[in-house]
């Protein structure tokens, strides 16, 4: 996709109707940079409006998924970590908090391929995705307290929706790492495969998802997110409208015809 050729700290590869996004700051284990934030926000907006894209896969270049915040910039109090408390608070809104907002707005299926470590904001980034596939090498850690920090990127919102309140509190209060099968049992990983098969199994999963009715999936994904905030009556009203749209779509009518055969 030539329109993405000049992105910084993010590689983009289009493969049929799949879009692969690779966090590209491997010399720092893909720690999040301001350029990466700009690139990720831009690509998600473009992908949302690109009818040729059905599923987006997010992964990390090199050995790891994402090491979270840039510790070097924190030490130097530079870039997005510059200034006194009030300015820092504004910087979080200006920079890293754009990621959860962009991820939450995105209506198409979003899969995290967790190759290696997903630490701090990297763990939260994976939890912002709809599905997470990893291997015995995948490691998750909510390590903010070890650095005297809070999950300013929105981790307290997303993490408990993935693993539940008690497990989220355990992760936050201990800062422990969760690996492989343990991560799968907690729900941090929705699928666990061997590291040798990780990319091929991720592609297989993405192709399977993309083979279904994307219009129905997008409506259902939107409904799932709304359901976390609505009462039953309000949500049933939304579902009745969404089902009305879906039930008169070409995807539904074609599926009915196939079912008769």
Describe the structure.
- This protein is an alpha/beta fold and 261 residues long.
- Helix content is 48%, strand content 15%.
- It has helices spanning 34-48, 71-76, 85-94, 98-105, 121-127, 155-163, 165-174, 180-186, 198-211, 214-227, 232-246, 250-260, and strands at residues 10-15, 18-23, 55-60, 110-114, 117-119, 131-134, 139-141, 177-179, 191-192.
- The strands form two sheets. A six-stranded mixed sheet has the order 1-2-3-4-6-9, sandwiched between helices.
- Strand 2 (18-23), helix 1 and strand 3 form a beta-alpha-beta unit.
- It is globular.
Describe the strand arrangement of the main beta sheet, using strand numbers: 1-2-3-4-6-9
| Beta strands, count | 9
Low-confidence stretches: none
Helical residues, percent: 40-55%
Main β sheet profile: 6 strands, mixed
Distance between the termini: 38 Å
- Mean residue pLDDT: 93
The helix tally amounts to: 12
**Would you list the SSEs in sequence order as H and E?**
EEHEHHHEEHEEHHEHEHHHH
* Inertia-based shape: globular
Features:
alpha/beta, 261 residues, six-stranded mixed sheet, 12 helices, three-stranded mixed sheet
């Amino acid at each position: 996709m030539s329109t993405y050729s000049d992105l910084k700290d993010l590689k983009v590869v289009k493969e049929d109707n799949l879009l692969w996004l690779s966090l590209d700051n491997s010399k720092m284990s893909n720690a999040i940079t301001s350029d990466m934030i700009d690139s990720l926000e831009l690509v998600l907006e473009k992908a949302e409006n690109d009818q040729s894209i059905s599923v987006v896969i997010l992964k990390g270049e090199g050995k790891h998924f994402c090491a979270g915040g840039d510790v070097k910039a924190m030490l130097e109090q530079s870039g997005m970590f510059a200034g006194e408390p009030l300015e820092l608070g504004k910087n979080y809104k200006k920079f890293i908090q754009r990621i959860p907002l962009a991820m939450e707005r995105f209506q198409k299926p979003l899969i995290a391929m967790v190759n290696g470590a997903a630490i701090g904001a990297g763990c939260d980034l994976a939890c912002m995705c709809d599905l997470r596939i990893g291997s015995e090498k995948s490691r998750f850690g909510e390590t903010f307290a070890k650095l005297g920090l809070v999950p300013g990127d929105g981790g307290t919102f997303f993490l408990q929706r993935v693993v539940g309140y008690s497990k989220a509190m355990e992760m936050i209060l201990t800062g422990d790492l969760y690996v492989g099968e343990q991560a799968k049992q907690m729900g941090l990983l929705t699928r666990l495969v061997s590291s040798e098969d990780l990319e091929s199994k991720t592609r297989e999963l993405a192709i399977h998802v993309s083979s279904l009715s994307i219009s129905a999936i997008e409506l259902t994904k939107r409904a799932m997110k709304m359901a976390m905030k609505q009462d039953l009556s309000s949500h049933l009203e939304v579902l009745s409208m969404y089902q009305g749209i879906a039930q008169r779509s070409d995807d539904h009518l074609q599926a009915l015809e196939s079912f008769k055969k």
